[in-house]
Amino acid sequence: MYLESIGENWEIFLNDHSLAQEIHLDISHKEMILRRTIRSFRLPVDSSLLRSGENLLTFRLIGDAPASFLSKNVDLGFYIDGDYSLTTEQKLSGEISTLINLCLNTIYVFFGFYHLLIYVKRREDLYNLYFGIFSVFMALYSLSRSNIAFEVIYDTTWITRIEYSSVSLLAPLFLLFMQDYFYGRAKFSKVLFAILILNVVIALTTLLEPFRYTMTSLRLWQISILPTLVYLLYFMSKAVYLRKKDAILLATSMFTVVFIAVYDVIDSIFFQSGIRFTQFAYFLFVVALTTILANRFISLYRQSEDLNIELSQQKLELARQKNAFFRFVPVQFLNVLGKNSAVEVNLGDSVLKEMSVLFTDIRSFTTISEQMTPEENFRFINDYLASMEPVVQRHEGFVDKFMGDGILALFSGDGEITRSHQTSADKAILAAIEMKKKFKQSMHKRRILTLED
Hints:
- Helix content is 58%, strand content 11%.
- By secondary structure, it is mostly helical.
- Helix 1 runs parallel beside helix 8 (278-326) and helix 4 (157-183) runs antiparallel to helix 5.
C-alpha cells in the first residue's frame, strides 16, 4: 500500500484486520498527546488478508477541529494530492524526491555556515551574518517539508512548528541582508523594523502556542506577507534606480524566487498539491547570491592586497626617511626631548635638562690636512669620526653634531648618579680620555703604515 500522506492520528483496516495504527490519545481520549503525520507512506500488506471479490479498506482518522475561521486542519487525513494505491509495484518517486531534497538542503546549510564563518572572521560585513542565518532557516523550512523529516522525527508536531516558524523569518532576514549589502549600517526604516518585529512575534508564537492554533498563525503570516512583498519590491527597485552594485542581478534572482514562492503560498492555501518549486528556485537564487558575495569578497581581497602593497612601500619609504633623519638627529636626542618619534617633534619644543657637553677637535688639523690629498683627507676624517662615536656611546653619551674634524657630544645628567656611580661630567671626562688614547693609537698606526709605504 502506498499513501502520499496521512495524518494526524490514524488507523488502517483491511477487511476488519488492523494493518497499522498511530493513535496517541490522553486518558480521556479527547486530546492527542502527539501527532504522527507521514508522507510517502509504504505499508506491506499480507496477501492472505485479501479475499476474492470485494475487499473493505477502512481508515480511522483523528484530528483537531479548526481553531478559528482563518484556518482549517490541513494535516488531517489525505491532505496532499497524489498517489493512493494498493499495488504490487514499488514506488520509487518518493525516494528520488527525498534524495534531491537532502542534497539541495545540504548545499544550503553549507552555504549558510560558510557565510557565518566569514562573518566571524570579518564582523564588519553584517550581510554575511544575515545571509548565513537566512540560508540555515531556508534549509530548515525545506527539510521540514521533506519525507525524511517525517521519518526521523516521530512527533510531527515539531515538524509543523519548525516549518511555520522558519518560513515566517525568511522575508525579514532577506530584507536585512539587502539593507546591509546595499546601504551598510544605515539606520533601519520604520517599515523594515515593523516587519522584523511582526515576523519574530509570529515565529515565537508558532513555537510556543497550543498546536491547534499554529495554522491560524500561519494564515496571519500569509496575509502579512503581501505588504512585505510590496515593500521588498520597492526596496529592490530603489536599489536598481540608485545603481547599487549587483542590484540588477540580485533583483532578477529575487523576483524569480518571489514569483515561485507566491505560487507555493497559493498552492498551499487552495490546491494543496504538495509540490513545491521553491527549493529549486532557491537553489538558483542561492547560487546567484553566493556568486555575488564571492565577487565582493574577491574584490575586497584584492583591495586589501593593494593596500598591503602600498603600506609596505610606505613603510620602506618611512624607514628610509627615518634612517636619513637619524643621520642628523640621534635617537638619544629624541629621548631627551621625551619623544618617541621625529614626527612628534614640533617647532619650538624644548626641555630643561642638566647635561655635560664635550667638544673635541684635532689639534693642528689644518697643518695635517695640507700634507694630504683631498681623497686622503676624506678618508682620514671618516675613519676618525667613525672610531670616536662608539667611544662616546660606551660612556652613555651621544653625538649631537659633527663639524669638520670637531665633535659635539652630550651626556645627560638625569638622575645625576647612574648605575655606574658616575655623573654626566664623569662620563664626559672618561669619554674624552678614551677618545684621546684612541686617536693616539690611530695616529701611531697611521705613521707605521706611512713608513711601510
